[in-house]
Amino acid sequence: MKNYTAIMVGGILLLIISNSLFAEDNKYIEKTEDSIHTIESNKQSIIQQAKICIIKHVKNDSVVLIGTSSGVSGLFGVGKRRESTTVIPQGEVVKFIDKESGIIFANSRINIKADMIQYSVQSTINLYAKDNKFKIAHTEIMYLQKDVGYGSPDEYKKLPKKGHWGSSLVETAVNGLNSLTKEIVSCIKSPVSTDW
């Protein structure tokens, strides 16, 4: 009976732990995926055009973070405001391209404003192409607050599925990523101008 009870308690604990880990994984937006787009072109040509469009529309610029601290000094305790800035350097945009496999991976950073607060949202753009079709997905979606007011500069963290206290951060971030996707898709589908 003791062994059975120990096994049962152990099984329940294992179930609780695994459920909490699963719930933790489900708290964040892991991927946004666009629908499949058709185009009359072969895989290699799509990838070539996609590379041009990604370089044209996608940015991975540096991000300036602002944090403020206050201190008291002097005989009468006069307050001082100390502003600190941190710069996250810009990076490469296209990080991997394989025309034969029809794959491009690119780094992206977009700036958004949600509830009067400025954020930077970064993602990895995954573009997959086959003959006559392609799709784009954003993965590794992270965000940070650019000006934290009083406090240390923020760090990139996973984007939650639900915002806190009615914040529009999640919706605004996803809309921003979808808007970038639409720009890339429109560019890829646009005929290359030969009239110049």
Q: Can you walk through the features of this model?
A:
The protein is an alpha+beta fold and 196 residues long. It has a single domain (29-189), classed as Alpha-D-Glucose-1,6-Bisphosphate, Chain A, domain 4. The chain is built from three helices and ten strands, in the order αββαββββββββα. Strands 1, 2, 5, 6, 7, 8 and 10 form a seven-stranded antiparallel beta sheet that branches. A three-stranded mixed beta sheet has the order 4-3-9, with no helix packed on it. Strand 3 (63-73) and strand 4 form a beta hairpin. Helix 2 (43-57) packs across helix 3. The radius of gyration is 23 Å and the shape is elongated. Mean pLDDT is 83; it is low at 8-23.
Write the layout of secondary structure elements.
Layout: H1 2-25, E1 31-33, E2 37-38, H2 43-57, E3 63-73, E4 78-88, E5 94-98, E6 103-114, E7 117-130, E8 133-145, E9 147-150, E10 157-158, H3 169-189
Parallel strand pairs: 3-9
Antiparallel strand pairs: 1-8, 2-8, 3-4, 5-6, 6-7, 7-8, 8-10
Helix pairs in contact: 2-3
